[in-house]
# Entry
Amino acid sequence: GENVEQHPSTLSVQEGDSAVIKCTYSDSASNYFPWYKQELGKRPQLIIDIRSNVGEKKDQRIAVTLNKTAKHFSLHITETQPEDSAVYFCAASIRRGSYIPTFGRGTSLIVHP
Amino acid sequence: EADIYQTPRYLVIGTGKKITLECSQTMGHDKMYWYQQDPGMELHLIHYSYGVNSTEKGDLSSESTVSRIRTEHFPLTLESARPSHTSQYLCASTPSAREGYTFGSGTRLTVV
# Structure
């Protein structure tokens, strides 16, 4: 069925390095791609999103890029800090009758001081 | 403050009990969702609703039911709890399919 693949499952970086998480999706009609950050013991929170009519979006140290032809999108975090350590989930709106966000399996990002 | 609220926060119950997990949001969102999540793991869609009197099954729906009698309220019921239901249950809402979710703080359920 339609799904979202997310890689890597675990990412370990040194403070100050960049981190990149990649997702691919299968439904060519998907038009909305949010990213969520979930800190340990807390609820997932939306950190950035992108719509299909845009190729890139930035918000301070985080950015998301979208390649609709290749059906993949990526989260980029620059100048990582220990407080960036969390599980990050991508999602893509997948058709199930109407559009339902389908989540990737998550990436555990660890930023070492 | 406009938000989405889940109760109880933690629940320990015996096998075979019927339980209802509560979810209410004060944002006026039409779309609401229930997810099951083991700690730090994948989110599995259980049920969703597009509005009052609308409910749809997700991928893990066979052992639970939902209702949507009011816009703000979307309770999840397990008719007969089993140890395999031990998990965290997250409720979420959004105004449209092209807007991000707001998640509740979750209910951590343990079935003994």
In short: Residues 60 and 75 of chain B are 16 Å apart (CA to CA). Chain B touches chain A at residues 40-43, 45, 48, 50, 56, 90, 97-106 (CB under 8 Å).
